Amino acid sequence: MNQNWHSILIRHMLILVTLCLLAGLVSGYYGWCLAVGLGLYLGWTLKQLLRLHHWLNKHQPDEAPPDGYGLWGDVFDSIYHLQRRDQRVRGRLQAVIDRVQESTAALRDAVIMLDSDGNLEWWNRAAETLLGLKTPQDSGQPVTNLVRHPRFKEYFEAENYAEPLEIPSPINDRLRVQMLITRYGNNEHLMLVRDVTRIHQLEQMRKDFIANVSHELRTPLTVISGYLETLLDNVDEVNPRWARALQQMQQQGGRMQTLLNDLLLLAKLEATDYPSDNQPVAVCALLQSIKSDAQALSGSRNQRITLEADDSIRLKGSESELRSAFSNLVFNAVKYTPAEGNIHIRWWGDGKMAYMSVQDSGIGIDAKHLPRLTERFYRVDSSRASATGGTGLGLAIAKHVLLRHRGHLEVSSVPGQGSTFTCVFAAQQLVMQATGNGSLRATP
Ligand code: ADP
């Protein structure tokens, strides 16, 4: 095999030419003898080439190569050994693939591989039970055609997979699945789908419990508040010493009522994905009315509240929900900004998204609190919150309302200097309106 074919070939050619010349010497036809000799050699070489071609195209997997002489025999053997080595490597690879497939098939979670365009490439058995994928018909289909939930389509197309998505299974409404997408390689996607029905049921029980308790507490609280009001109205007839106690009871009763209302509103917001109302809301007018309420709340603290809004941008959704979210942000700014401070409300668009921001020159929030700010009952400083009479649910409500309007909340703050809460809304939620009065500039 390791022979020096270069010198052997030269030697063979020399022998051939010498034999041809000898034949020419004998016959006297040098030229013809040389031509016939080289022609025969060429013919033999072509024949070997054809045998090689035939063997490469027609041979069975383990069929030995044809016998060959000289260099051709060596070429046949080398190709044969290369093929055997290739088969062994392929066998080993196949064994690895089989093991990976066996282990992923045994997984209870679905594993789905998608190409860079989101078309299905491969999935395990759990993907068939959780999402109803069919082998092999669904191969190459866009995943958004098979998982048709609108939230999934948005989640997939937004390409922001930092948080998992939870939706009902496309084949069974009672099954709840959580999806997590990771990008790998050449922008391909790996999708993991988990059955979270049990966790969802527990979560649902918790929500129902809170909603039911809040609802049940409402009636007794209304009765107590009613009697307190009557007693306070006639406190002089009852006993004037009770006046202060009754006033405090009424104040705390009021706080409890606000808390119950907020809890019920949250439960309502969590019950569905999107608001039933989907009319274009005139955000400019809505903010003007919230600004008036904020001015009343500010009262003697005399904060300077300004509004700048683009009236040509309307937001599709529920006006009452948006009012709750926006007023929570604006009233927080009033509550957490000292007297004579500045509060600036803005509503504007940049051609792609629309933004509603509330900027204040208040006490600000330390950066470590920002990630947890929208959690229920999360308070930066509990003594500060009880002084302002907040329920600790305002930002949780705002976050939920924004989510239902394809938006999200961004918060930036510098302690001691102020905070900016910005609601960002996606283009599909906006309606551009040609208005006569145009945009509303900063109004004190
Ligand atoms: P609360 O009803 O207590 O105001 P929220 O959910 O509205 O509850 O707000 C959560 C916490 O975030 C508040 O307790 C407060 O400490 C902080 N916070 C909210 N808005 C502001 C703001 N504009 N400036 C400073 N702190 C704020």
UniProtKB/TrEMBL annotation:
It is found in: Cell membrane. SMART domains: HATPase_c, HisKA, PAS. Pfam families: HATPase_c, HisKA, PAS, PhoR. GO terms for molecular function: ATP binding; phosphoprotein phosphatase activity; phosphorelay sensor kinase activity. GO terms for cellular component: plasma membrane. Residues 212-429 form the Histidine kinase domain. InterPro entries: BphY/WalK/GraS-like, HATPase_C_sf, HATPase_dom, His_kinase_dom, HisK_dim/P_dom, HisK_dim/P_sf, PAS, PAS-like_dom_sf. Its main location: membrane. Residues 89-150 form the PAS domain. One of its GO terms (biological process) is regulation of DNA-templated transcription. It catalyses: ATP + protein L-histidine = ADP + protein N-phospho-L-histidine. Its EC number is 2.7.13.3. SUPFAM superfamilies: ATPase domain of HSP90 chaperone/DNA topoisomerase II/histidine kinase, Homodimeric domain of signal transducing histidine kinase, PYP-like sensor domain (PAS domain). Keywords: ATP-binding, Cell membrane, Kinase, Membrane, Nucleotide-binding, Phosphate transport, Phosphoprotein, Transferase, Transmembrane, Transmembrane helix, Transport, Two-component regulatory system. Member of the two-component regulatory system PhoR/PhoB involved in the phosphate regulon genes expression. PhoR may function as a membrane-associated protein kinase that phosphorylates PhoB in response to environmental signals. This is Phosphate regulon sensor protein PhoR. The lineage of its organism: Bacteria, Pseudomonadati, Pseudomonadota, Gammaproteobacteria, Pseudomonadales. The gene is phoR.
